[in-house]
Design brief:
By secondary structure, this protein is an alpha/beta fold. Helix content is about 50%, strand content about 10%.
Length: about 300
């Protein structure tokens, strides 16, 4: 154990990979008494210098009321917590490990059976961004557990966000954001590939790409309202118009000798919308298609 204050810590951090270390550093920088533990002890050396109390065992670490777990996957979470399950009663366990909503709900039930409150979390940031005012970490699970430790959560993420009682909500929101991220990145890379065939540098495409992303983002307020209302007017552009443009993109892609995976996916979804009789509806009508049961 380190020579630092051995008084009971406010927060325990189990798992000292890049993200776990960043979480502990942010807590320490804010003056929060922090105990850390890692299966490989050497990773805690720098944190001990910063003021962390280094626990020799995970059982020793969970004397803290708030326990943050950040490891590789849910199997690793269980591997860390199962040997100390008899010490979890009365603790708030916050799992900041990436996984599925089903895994989160299963883990919450496991923790509840052992008398612990369980919050699932999703970190929408890189380790270097932990502790910043605009960093987002999503939390879901019992609100009373979140409220009791809100200050610590806002220390590691200025935009800490509570989503609701269902512990699976953090994972679901995480993958929803990933879907958006990959859609934007794949669209940019596809456009850059088509232009590269014509000798245009990606850097030259950037101003137009940024404008396109900004314009599209400006539609989201109205589109979100349409999705929630189940009303998809085609007053700005109909599905038929969109699908015609998708065909144009596909043709240009083939002509340029660029892989068609991205535009073919757009066109396949658009064609399904036309087959479903959505030609005169707005683009948001695709959400109903995505929610439909394709087995019928």
């Amino acid at each position: 154990m380190s020579n630092h204050d051995d008084a009971r810590a406010d927060v325990a951090v189990l798992g000292l990979g890049a993200m776990g270390t960043a979480l502990a550093q942010a807590l320490l920088a804010a003056g929060i008494r922090t105990v850390v533990w890692n299966r490989t002890p050497g990773r805690a050396d720098g944190l001990a210098t910063d003021g962390a109390r280094v626990a020799e065992t995970s059982a020793e670490a969970v004397a803290a009321e708030l326990v943050l777990v950040c490891v590789s996957d849910y199997d690793a979470v269980r591997g860390v917590l199962t040997p100390i399950e008899d010490r979890l009663a009365g603790r708030v366990v916050v799992n900041l490990t990436s996984g599925s909503s089903a895994e989160a709900r299963s883990m919450a039930a496991w923790a509840a059976d052992r008398g612990a409150s369980y919050l699932d979390g999703a970190i929408l940031a890189a380790p270097a961004e932990v502790g910043a005012a605009d960093t987002v970490i999503l939390f879901s699970g019992p609100q009373e557990a979140y409220d009791a430790h809100r200050q610590s959560f806002e220390t590691v993420a200025g935009r800490a966000t509570y989503l609701g009682a269902d512990p699976g909500l953090s994972s679901l929101h995480d993958v929803a954001v990933l879907a958006l991220m990959w859609s934007v990145l794949n669209g940019f890379l596809h456009g850059a590939a088509v232009l590269k065939r014509a000798g245009v540098r990606a850097e030259a495409f950037l101003p137009l790409a940024r404008d396109g992303i900004s314009t599209t983002a400006g539609w989201l307020d109205a589109y979100a309202a349409q999705v929630d209302a189940g009303d998809h007017p085609g007053d700005d552009s109909t599905m038929a118009t969109h699908v015609a443009a998708m065909q144009h993109l596909l043709e240009e892609t083939v002509s340029a000798g660029v892989d068609t995976t991205v535009p073919a996916a757009f066109k396949a979804l658009g064609d399904r919308a036309l087959e479903a009789g959505l030609a005169d509806r707005g683009y948001t009508a695709l959400v109903d298609l995505l929610l439909s049961d394709r087995s019928h």
